[in-house]
Amino acid sequence: MTESADRLQVRSARHPSIYGIGFFALDIVRSAQCKTSIRSYAGGTCGNVLAILAYLGWDAHAIASLNGDAASKRVREDLSLAGVKLGLARIAPSVSTPIVVQVIKRESKDVLRHQFERACLECGHVLPDFMPVPVQAVSRIAAAMPEPSVFFMDRVSRSSIELARIAAERGALVYLEPSDIEDADLFEEAISVTHVVKYAKERLPSIGDTTRSPSVLAEIRTVGSEGLIYRSRLSREGAWSHIDSVPAPVVVDACGAGDWCTAGIIATLGAKGVAGLVSCQERDLADAMRYGQALAAWNCGFEGARGGMYRVKRSSFARQVAAILGAEATPRARRANAVGRLRVLPSGRIACPACPPILPTARPRR
Prior knowledge:
With 366 residues, this protein is an alpha/beta fold. It has a single domain (16-338), classed as 3-Layer(aba) Sandwich (UDP-N-acetylmuramoyl-L-alanine:D-glutamate ligase). Helix content is 34%, strand content 18%. It has helices at residues 3-14, 45-55, 70-82, 138-143, 158-169, 184-191, 257-269, 273-278, 282-299, 307-311, 314-325, 331-338, and strands spanning 17-21, 25-30, 38-43, 59-63, 85-88, 99-106, 112-117, 150-153, 173-176, 196-200, 218-222, 228-232, 241-243. A nine-stranded mixed β-sheet has the order 5-4-1-8-9-10-11-12-13, sandwiched between helices. The chain has a four-stranded mixed β-sheet with strand order 3-2-6-7. Helix 9 packs across helix 11. The model is unreliable at 1-13, 327-335, 337-348 and 359-366 (pLDDT under 50).
């Protein structure tokens, strides 16, 4: 083995990798503090999970068609600064990048809530939505995905299922986080190659009987303020276990809490692929859920789905999450929290594709 190859293997061992396909979007956030304050960030479940795991020290790779419009440039810029690798983020053909508007409103002095809009705040035009990566690109993507630790998908499509199957054959832990079930047959096929499935009860009260699929090792259902329940083939003969929610020290905005929870679970369980998950004990599963909940609680103190990443130094983040975990911070969870480094990310504003172009202001003549 050459010296350079040896160095690559050492780096791979230290930096687990995740490849994600699905919902990448431009999040446009209107603040509750000022109605004229509008910021834009890379978002979408898949985009957020990858950015958070890059923040935690993983090699995170985006699989997407962010390849043309102004929104895609902003998303790529933000993901890149977060540390996400974009070598597979310009899959042809060009499509309009999804845009999601989040409006944060103050209901009282101490209560904020957020709502999502699918229309532009300026012109009222319906904003672009998700389009899957074409199946014709699967072979090219697979060639650039040699030994993934985790494969993540949040939208079921023919391309995502084919890539998940390939990743599983290469030892990856396949993690599915659906927001709905549009095609029951396609969803069943996705479940057949999935190892961990996580979903929110308010969006999907049930996803059917996952125990029919021998590949599913863990099923996680979040239940809002009540915490989450999970069951696994790895412990207690598949019985449901409940974990209470972790109280947030400060609640500003709950947007993105589920994405942080997912990233924490993956960071704790997924570094060694599906083989690492199979070797887990009951306590390991509970630790992963608790660590994910602690990350979610921490991010509730900031506006936006990943607001804390922009405002807190990496060293402070580690201390604050450790404080939330308190005595529950087991060695496995502490190791997941100890890697990575902070990237301080800028934000900016961008118009929707239907808005009239913003022309530069002419300078007055002297």
